[in-house]
Amino acid sequence: MGLLVYTAILMVLITIVYKFSSIARYYLKFIFFGVASVIMASAPIPLMLIKPRDSRNGLIPAAGIRMACRLIGVKTSLEGHEHIVRNSGCVILINHQSMLDLLVLAELWPAMDNCTVIAKKEILYIQPFALAAWLWGTIFIDRVKKEDAQAAVNKTGRTIRTRKARVLMFPEGTRNQKEKLLPFKKGAFHLAIASRSPIQPVVVNRYRFLGKHRFDNGHIRVKILPPIATDGYSADNIQELIDKTYKVISENVDLISKEEDDKMKKD
């Protein structure tokens, strides 16, 4: 009985703090999102064991993450289905802003067949999440020396061609909420060239609802752009491909962010 009373008091206090403190809301929302994401990813493991390494195993965690985000006031929309690469693998490049980008992956996963991500093999020590990630087809790679990097890229490229996988990557390499995108890392582009597959740019509007110790309700708009062919590119002219892709993604992030800003002003 005493435990129930203490629990009720604690819940009331959390509710009050959540309502009146933006800092508390910020941390409570992120804690909820993180915990919910781990639970949603791991809970369906018994079902995933029926068809291991099947990308469709990620559909249940993706649905759970979308639901968790709605509970904390984040809505999403996805457009550009007509641009999705068909009948081949591709490297999907997305601008990176926050851990909430998991929601972007959760939107893309059911919209595109055979999605996957790349992770370091060290992730395998984080259980049960690592088992879930393996079951939905994550490509695990070893940490390699610089001189062995090309061999690792070629091996992963063959995996993409064989599985016709759609590999989702963040070319900035780290989270960035500034107005200008960070320079793109070369790894994703080496992978696209090695796999002889196109690049599928995906852009996400800037998260205006996030700030320093501020997490308001908001809208995440995800837009799939026309693919960029990698034919004719090699290590010798890879910077041209990077610059071309950077320009396309940067301009479209600016565009959809402005459109969303204008909508907020009207509302």
Quick tags:
10 strands; alpha/beta; globular; two-stranded parallel ribbon; 267 residues
- Give the H and E element order: HHHHEEHEEHEHEHEEEEH
**Amino-to-carboxy terminus distance:** 48 Å
How many distinct helices? 9
Which stretches are low in confidence, meaning pLDDT under 50 for 5 or more residues running? none
Strand ordering within the main sheet: 1-10-7-2-6-3
Task: Tell me the Rg in angstroms.
Answer: 20 Å
How much beta, percentage-wise? 5-15%
- Seen as an oligomer or otherwise, the chain set is single chain
Q: Into which percent range does the helicity of residues fall?
A: 40-55%
Description:
By secondary structure, the chain is α/β, with parallel strands linked by helices. It is 48% helix and 15% strand. The protein is built from nine helices and ten strands. Strand 8 and strand 9 (214-215) form a beta hairpin. Helix 1 (2-20) packs across helix 2 and helix 7 crosses helix 8 (187-194). It is globular, with a radius of gyration of 20 Å. The termini are far apart. The model has no long low-confidence stretch (mean pLDDT 92).
